[in-house]
Amino acid sequence: MDETKTYVKFQPNEAFLESLLSMGITESHAHEALFCTGNESVEAAISYVFTNLLQDSTDDACLVQRGATGDASNEENLKRYKMTFVVNTALKMGVGKIAAQVAHACLGLYREMRVRGEREDALNEWDYFGEKKIVLKGDNTEHLEELFNKAKELNVPGYLVSDAGHTQIPAGSVTVLSVFGEEEEVNAITGNLSLL
């Protein structure tokens, strides 16, 4: 019995493709991203591009720095956002514990900002441009609380994680501070700290 298989050529969603191309993403990257994400959405394709296709491509990385139009003259108008995480090193948490606490800090701040509708455009731009995140060393609980209060004074969103106490450290321990905003305003709070 002769079995024949029919293969259908992948057809990207034209609206999604057009959106990706208008952002300066190359046609080949756009096609690959839409294919690999199942034509799900522009956001999924963008995430795929930045996660998988631009890691070692300096030419394409320049597109990110120049903004959606690809116009170098717009580079100076592009705001850069980041989220920093200050870990309470006095608690001597293990690597896995730190990773979990940083995840709590990221999700906690992100959710809180989304629920409040706080800085939505900034969050969207941060999402689009790769969600820059930095993990830093904090001295102790008092240090994290001091930085948190400074963030509040400067009207910069911040979130303190208090541990539930199920593992390694006592309940209520302040483990991580997360802060989000434009790089300059975040640096005014955490810019003098060392990388973890």
TrEMBL record:
A single GO cellular-component term from the record reads: cytosol
Family annotation (SUPFAM superfamilies)? Peptidyl-tRNA hydrolase II, UBA-like
Keywords on record: Hydrolase
| Catalytic activity, reaction form | an N-acyl-L-alpha-aminoacyl-tRNA + H2O = an N-acyl-L-amino acid + a tRNA + H(+)
GO molecular-function terms, A-Z: peptidyl-tRNA hydrolase activity
Which SMART domains does this chain map to?
UBA (SM00165)
Q: What is its EC number?
A: 3.1.1.29
Q: Which InterPro entries does the protein's record reference?
A: Pep_tRNA_hydro_II_dom_sf, PTH2, UBA, UBA-like_sf
Question: Where do the UBA domain residues begin and end?
Answer: 11-52
Among CDD domains, the record links this protein to: PTH2, UBA1_scUBP14_like
Which family is this protein grouped under? Belongs to the PTH2 family.
User: NCBIfam families recorded for this chain?
Assistant: arch_pth2
Q: Which PANTHER family match?
A: AMINOACYL-TRNA HYDROLASE, PEPTIDYL-TRNA HYDROLASE 2
Its recorded name reads peptidyl-tRNA hydrolase
